[in-house]
Amino acid sequence: MALGPVGPIPTGPNLLRRPRPITHARAYGILLGVTFLWAGNFPFGKLALAELGPLTLTGARAVLAVPLLLLAARLMHGPLPRPTRADKWAFVLISLTGLVCNTTMWYWGLRYTSPINAGILGAGAPVLVALAGALWLGDPLAKRHYVGFALTLGAVLLTVSHGSLEILRTLSFNKGDLIILASQWAWIAYSLLGRATNSRLPILTLQAGAHVVSAAVLVPLALLERPWAALAQASAIGWGVILYAAGPLTLGHVLYYKGVSVVGAGRAAIFMNPMPFLVIGLSWLFLGERVYWYHLVGATAAIGGVALATSK
Fold first, then answer.
1. For residue 8, what are the β-bridge partners?
2. Considering its fold, how many domains does the chain have in total?
3. Sign (positive/negative) of CA torsion 239, 222, 208, 22?
4. 54, 123, 151, 190: most buried, per Cβ within 10 A?
5. 301 and 153 in contact (C-beta within 8 Å)?
6. Domain-located, residue 15
7. Is 259 among the domain residues?
8. What SS3 class is residue 298?
9. Residue 13: inside a domain, yes or no?
10. Beta-bridge partner residues of 255
């Protein structure tokens, strides 16, 4: 037995031997499963927000995810290395832009809007990342990329206006939609910092360190929402969503990067494109959300825009 960061860890030959390579077929299955996992966060998160505040939900998720990520990093990459100065900065920046800002703001916005709207608006995030990457990191752009930007912008305007010219004219948007859009800027920073970081740690170890920082930041902030009262009164649904977010959703990131390592980022992105329609279907199934024409048109435009804007 070896002593790991979360307790004794078996070190027998069966546990630490190199795993067999993942086939392309299995990688595609993993990516499809991850897409469903992430799409489920939209309707399930909406259910949890009826009982828990955004800070409480994100803070509890971070606290529970830390030991899972540390254990997974230990098993997949061996003993955890002593973090360098660059590693520590990466932990802080990824934490603040990811779980602390993006995820907390996303839950805050979801409280006031429908999961379908959130799904369509969130689908445009890769386009914003591509645009910011071109401006900040000098990524080249072609004409098709600009067409993709325009399509995605059209999808966003159609969604936040609910297909109404009057809402666009008077700028009387739903505040939840605007918060969801604002959260995407934190996602841009999260995505670009992940590319620009000088840390040499594996992505799983980086995520584990970032979640440690997130828990340290979010737990004190969550006290503003009196989480002891909310958690004590939370139903099985509220606790179930916390466990869902801390376990399957968090490990879904690990599985996603595993799939990317086998089939490449381009092919992996294809599995993310149907996300808006999965969110629409799951929201209708579990919440009885009404689906309007602008949802379907907006989701289609968002998928087309992302495909064009992120194409190589």
1. 3
2. 1
3. positive
4. 123
5. no
6. no
7. yes
8. helix
9. no
10. none
